[in-house]
Amino acid sequence: MHRILLLAGFIAGTACAAQAQDAPPTEPVDWKARLEADVTAFHAAIMDSHPGPVDPLNPAFRPRAAAGLKQALERAKTVHTPGGWWWALRAYQASFDDGHVQLYGIGDGAKLNSTWPGFLTVWTGADQVVTARQEGRTDTPPMGAKLISCDGTKAGLLAEQRVGAFRGRWFLESQRVTYGDLLFVNTDNPYLKPLKTCRFATEAGTKTYRLTWAQLSNEDLGKYLKLTRPARDYRFGLRETEGTLWLSTPGFNGNTQSDDYRELTALIVALKADPARLNRVGRVVLDLRGNGGGSSQWGYEIARQIWGGEWTAAHEARGADAVDWRPSEANIATIAAFVADQKANSGSVEAIQWGERALAGMKAARDKGEVYWHDANEGEASQGSAGPQAPLFKGRVFVLTDTSCGSACLDAVDLWKALGAVQVGRETSADTLYMEVRDQTLPSGMAGIGVPMKVYRGRPRGNNEPQRPAHVFEGDMSNDAALLTWIKGL
């Protein structure tokens, strides 16, 4: 049972993927026509290739997509700026509440500018807290102040309306943690009215602040966002330390030309070259920090090296009962290109066989005029068949996650926990039952989209359900030494 996501992971910017470009268009742009063309093409791709529009188990999908399109086309009537174009597209994408329905900027066609009131807040799990502020300002809340409300709207609803509406999945902790620091940034979004007054809880008591909005350069925006989003330099690696084998995999890209692919291949080779290392340690840490997804194949490859191939096959989690593929021409062409890439670049035999089977099945379904190719084989799972009586590694295995974990990273957590690993760290992101993303450029050439091609049937982990750790780490998730000490004490 192998699921190979064709994109490296989720594509996400800081304030906006189309932001921070060097030059605006040299000729006047009809942003109304551009938005109409792009959102219509976006919607058409969803209708043509996404499994949702024909999914009998999701009757709300079509009305939701239609409502999102209607809103975007209504907004197009008054669009005259690149910000209006971008944020209308972003709202349409967000309306699906699906991390695999993606939107990202391309090239230097749009330049967006930001304003702010001199401070930023982040979501701490309970509150929006001030964690960055402009030097020398006396009219902004102090560091650590907790937001209560703005213009009569409570903090939680405010973030949902002003950030969640353009990012989607605001019910997930990972989304609020990732994008909560954009609450007090407006990057040329004409659909947000400037906030006037906000109430904060400070050490000196509750205080109301009148906000003064000012321009914020891209350079300064990046500087302040770094204060709210500390740098995380996660790298691939395999090391033995203090009785622990620590395997770091901050990505699962399945593209044979990617850095992830080369790094992961080298890690698998290193594990195979020294199988005795598992006898030298008492615990293994499978570190998924920074991993946004890619190819589920890597999760299986790593499992085989840690637990053994037979144990993995005999105890792996049931990923799904089956998979339904949408056999559109664009989806078929994507799988064909994947197979060709794997063959041309010495990809794995398993990946090639998987792609060829999917390609043949989708073509057959297309030729019959069927809305799905039903792949029962991809849903096959072990039912406790004969296998070894013990795993290859008999010590404790921990899977370390953070809020970035999504897509194939979640598949790895599903598998490794079923094999006996204990999840630690932070709650993950989540994904819907719609998977396997393909790319498409919109008519403007200024943005691209990601469209899921298949849907899981009977997956035990629910739709948009995160993985929650058995042990939550409250400290700095980038501190390797602190994490190791903490894990050793579990």
From TrEMBL:
UniProt xrefs under SUPFAM superfamilies: ClpP/crotonase (SSF52096)
Transmembrane segments: none
Ranges where the Tail specific protease domain occurs: 260-444
UniProt KW keywords: Signal
Entry's Gene Ontology molecular function annotations: serine-type peptidase activity
Signal peptide: 1-20
A biological process from GO: proteolysis
Protein name: Peptidase S41
